[in-house]
Amino acid sequence: MNFNMNFKIKIFISALIIFDFFIWNSIIFDGGHKNLQAYFLNVGQGDSELVVLPGNVKILMDGGPNSKILTELSKSLPSTDHYIDLIILSHAEADHFTGLIDVAKRYRIGAFIFNGLNGRGNTWPELLKILKNNNVPIIVLSAGDKIKYLNNRMNFIWPEKNNLPKTTKTLNETALVSILESRMVKILFTGDIGFKTENHLLGKYDLSVDILKVGHHGSKFSTSEEFLKAVDPKISIIEVGKNSYGHPTKEVLNRLASVESKIFRTDKDGLIKIEANGENIKIFKIP
Amino acid sequence: MRIHDIAFYSIFFFLVGVLLASLNLKFLIIILITALLAALILTLHYFHLKPEIDFKKLSFLSLIIVAGALYYFWGNFQMQKSFFAPFDKKISFLGIVSDYPQRGASQKIAVALQAPYKGKILITLKPYPEFNYGDKLNFEGIIKKPEGSYANYLAKNEISAVSVYPKTSLIKTNQGSKIKSVLFSFKEKFVLALQKILPQEEAALASGLTLGERSEFSKNLKDAMSNSGTTHIVALSGYNITVIVSTAAFLFAFYFRKNIAFAMTLIIILGFVLMTGAEASVARAAIMGSVALLGKQIGRIYSFRNAMSVSAFLMILQNPKILAFDIGFQLSFLALMGITYISPAIKDFLKLGKEISQWKEILISTASAQLAVLPILISSFGKFSILSILANVLILWLIPFTMGVGFFTGFIGFFSYSLSQILGWFLHLFLYYELAIINFFGKIAVPLKISFGALGIIIYYTLLILFVVYIKRKVQRRLNQPRHNFAI
Asked: Does A129 contact chain B (CB < 8 Å)?
C-alpha cells in the first residue's frame, strides 16, 4: 500500500485529536462520580459485587466461580479503567474466589482483604501466588473493623476474631459480613452465612438496610424470617445461576415476599446496577 | 515445458493425491481416477487443441497423484504406529505438556505420553491450577478415542486421543525445549499485556487478530463472529504476515531510510514467528513474505506461483492432514491467491486504470479475498449470511490498523505499562467499533443454511478461474504483451 503524504498527515492529526479527547475525558470525568453505585454481577452460580463509592473508589467483593466476571466487569467499569482499589473476599470457597484469579492477573489492585482462613484444594494457592507476584498487600479483617472513605463506611460485623473455628468442613459461616453505610444507601452483604450466624448477629447490630444481598444464593438454610424482619430490605438481590441445589429456594422467595421486599436475581435479570444519589435509588438491569 | 513448470505441475498433482486420500477414498479408486485423468489429458494431446501445452508430459505428471495419496496413507500409518495406550480403561499415565496450553473456561493441554505409553493426547482440565509448556505431569483417568470430524481436527495437530478431567499432579517443570519455553512465555506476556489494558472481550479479539490466540473467546463472541461471517479475521494466516509487512513497511518508510526500514521489517517478521510459537503456517507465510520483500528490495521479480506452491508442498510434506482439515491453511492460501489473481482481474473488469485510490484498493482486495474463501467459510461454519459481506466491508478496512497498533501496543507493554495504556486507548477505539459491528451483525444476521457440497465447490472455483483467465486474456490481447503478477 502506498499512502501519500496528505493521507499520512490526516492520520496523524486524527490520532492527535483522539488522544486529546481521551485525556480531557479522563480529566473531566475521573473522580467526578457523585453517586454511589453498586453492581451485582451476573457470574452464574457464585457471588460477585462491585461497589463504586462517590469519588470513584472501587471495591470488588468476591469474584464468582470463573472468568465470567471479566465480561461483567467490562460492562460495569469504563473501558480504560484497569484499577480496583480493594478486593474483599467473603470466604475462600471456589464459587467466590476463582474469578478473582483472572481479575488479579489483569487489573491492578490496591489491597486484598479476607477473613484469614485459607481455602482447600489446589486453586486457592494460585490466587495467593498471583497476589504475591503483583505485590498486592493482603489484609485480614474481622468484626469491628471499618473501611472509611469520605462519608462512606463499610462496617464489618462478622466473623468475630476470637470465635473463628480452627478447622471447618465448610467456610460458609465464617464469611465476612459487612454493612455499607452512606448517606445515599445502606447495603448488607451476607456472603454465604446461614441461620446460626444470622441469629448471632440479630441481637448485636442494627441490621436494617435498604438493600440486602441475600445469603448463600437463596439457600433455604439462610435468610430466616426473624433475620428478614430485622433487616427489612426494600430490595433483595439474589446472586444465583444454574445449580443442582435448587437455589434460590421457594422458601426464601416466600420469606422475602412476606416482608414485601422487591426481589431481583442475577439469573433472570442479568447484571443488576443500583445507583443512589441521596434522594432516590435507581435500579437497572443490564443483560 | 520448462523446469519450473514441471515442478509446479508435479506439486499440483501431488496435492491432488493428498486431497483425494483425505476424502477417505479407497486407494484403488484413486488409482482409477488417476488413470482416467491421465488418459483424458493424453487424448487432448492427440486432438492438437493447444500446441503450446505439452499434454503428453502433463499426462505423465498426473500419475504423481498416486504418490500423493500414498504419502497420505503412509502418514496415517506412521501416526497409528506412534501411538500406544489403552482406550476406555482407567489408568495412571505420565506425560509432558508439549504445546502452548489453551486457557479459557477450561484448560486444554496437548501432552506427549511417556513410557510405557506413547503418542500425543489432548487433556481437558479445570482452569486452575495452570500448567505450562514443559511440565511433566502424572494423570489418573480414562483415555478415549475421538470420532469423526473431531478426530480429523485433532489429527492435524498429530493428536490421537483425548482425556477429560483426569486427576492431575505436577511432577517436574521445564522438561521441554528451552527455546520453545522462552517463546511461549513471550507469547503469554504479550497476551497479558493486552489483557491488562483492554476490557476482556476487546483483549480477546486483539489477541485473536494479532496472534490467532482464541482460547479467551467467550461463547457469545464466537457465536456473534460466526453468525456475522467474520470468524476468519482471527484465523492465523499469511494475511497476518502480509499485514505486518505492509504496516511495518508503512510505518518505517515514514521515518527511516529504505535499507533500515527493510531490516527492521525483517526483524518484526522474525519476532512474530517467535511469538506464535513458530507454527508451520506462520513460518511458511513468513518465508514467503520475506522472499517477496527481498525481491522488492533487490528489484527482482518474485514468482508468486512458485513460492506458493513450494511452501504449500513443504508444509504438506511435514503434515499431510492440513490440506483437507486445517481451515487456517486453506484460508491463508486461498485468500492470498484471491488477492494476487482476482483483484487485478476485478480492476481490469471495472476498467479502473493504474491510479486508483487507497480505499478502492482495500475494497477490491477485500472482495477478492472474500470471493476466494467463500465456499470454505460456508462449508466449515455451516452457514452464510448475505449481510456478512456488509459486515466484512465495514470492518476489514480497519483490521490492518488494529493488527498493527495491537502488535505495537502489546510489545510496548513489555517495557512500560503506562505507555501501553495510552496506545491502548487507540486500540480500544478500533476494537470497540469492530466488536460493535460483529455483535450487531451477529444479532441481525439470518444465517442461511447453505450446503455447498463438493460439486458446488468445484463449480464455484471453476467459474472463478474462468473469470480470471478470461479477463487476463482480454487484457493481454489488448496490450499484446505478457503481464507479471507481483505478490504482496
From this structure: no
Helix (H) or strand (E) holding A177: strand A177-181
Q: Which residue type occupies A152?
A: N
- B379-416: per-residue pLDDT in tens? 776 666 677 777 877 887 788 788 888 988 998 898 89
Using N-to-C axis directions, what is the helix angle for B358-381 and B327-337, rounded to 10°?
150
- Interchain CB distance below 8 Å, B127 and A70: no
Rounded distance between C-alpha atoms, residue A47 and residue A90, angstroms: 9
Residue B289's pLDDT is what? 66
Do A98 and B129 lie within an 8 Å CB cutoff?
A: no
Q: Averaged over B209-231, what is the pLDDT?
A: 84
**pLDDT range class, residue A22, cuts 50, 70, 90:** confident
- Give the integer Cα–Cα distance in Å for B186 and B179: 11
Q: B105 vs A66: CB contact, 8 Å cut-off?
A: yes
Picking from A248-252, B212-216, B328-332, which range would have the lowest pLDDT averaged per residue? B328-332
Q: In the numeric block, which cell numbers belong to residue B57?
A: 508430459
Pair A239, A206: CB distance under 8 Å: no
The C-alpha angle with vertex A213 and arms to A210 and A217, in degrees rounded to 5, equals 150
Residues B33, B39, B42, B48: what is their CA dihedral angle, to the nearest 10 degrees?
Answer: -100
Amino acid in position A55: G
Helix B258-275 / helix B280-298 crossing angle, nearest 10 deg: 170
The answer to whether the Cβ–Cβ distance between B197 and A22 falls below 8 Å is no
- Looking at residue B488, what is its pLDDT? 39
| Contact across the interface for B361 and A101, Cβ inside 8 Å | no
Backbone phi and psi for residue A167, each to the nearest 5 degrees, phi listed first: -125, 145
C-alpha cell at B102: 489453551
* Amino acid letter, B72: Y
pLDDT tens digits, B237-285: 666 777 677 667 766 777 777 778 778 777 777 767 766 765 656 666 6
Q: Which residues of B touch A (CB under 8 A)?
A: 104-105, 126-130, 192, 195-203, 216, 218, 246, 250, 254, 358, 361-362, 421-422, 424-426, 428-429, 432
CB B334 within 8 A of CB B427: no
- State ipTM: 0.84
Tell me how close the Cα of A193 comes to any Cα of chain B, in angstroms. 26
- Chain centroid, CA B425 distance in Å: 29
Give this prediction's pTM: 0.79
Contact by Cβ (8 Å): B162, B122: yes
Candidates B214, B111, B206; CA nearest to B154 is: B111
Is B409 within 8 Å of B423 (Cβ atoms)?
yes
Where is B164: in which H helix or E strand?
strand B161-164
User: Using the 8-state DSSP alphabet, how is residue B116 labeled?
Assistant: T
- CA dist B284 and B421 (Å) reads 33
Nearest by CB to residue A74, choosing from B201, B254, B426, is B201
Block residue for cell numbers 460466526: B226
Residue of B167, B173, B425 to mutate for A, most A C-beta atoms under 10 A:
B425
Percent of chain B with pLDDT over 90: 30
Q: Does A27 touch chain B (CB under 8 A)?
A: no
Chain A partners within 8 Å of B128 (Cβ):
98, 101, 122-123, 126
The minimum CA-CA distance between B321 and chain A, rounded to whole Å, is: 34
Distance from CA of A70 to the nearest CA of B (A): 6
Out of B127, B192, B426, the one facing A66 most closely (by C-beta) is B127
CB nearest B361 (choices: A1, A15, A105): A1
Structure-block grid coordinates of residue A173? 459461616
Q: 503524504: which residue's cell? A: A5
d(CA B87, CA B218): 32
Minimum Cα–Cα distance from B401: chain A residue: A11
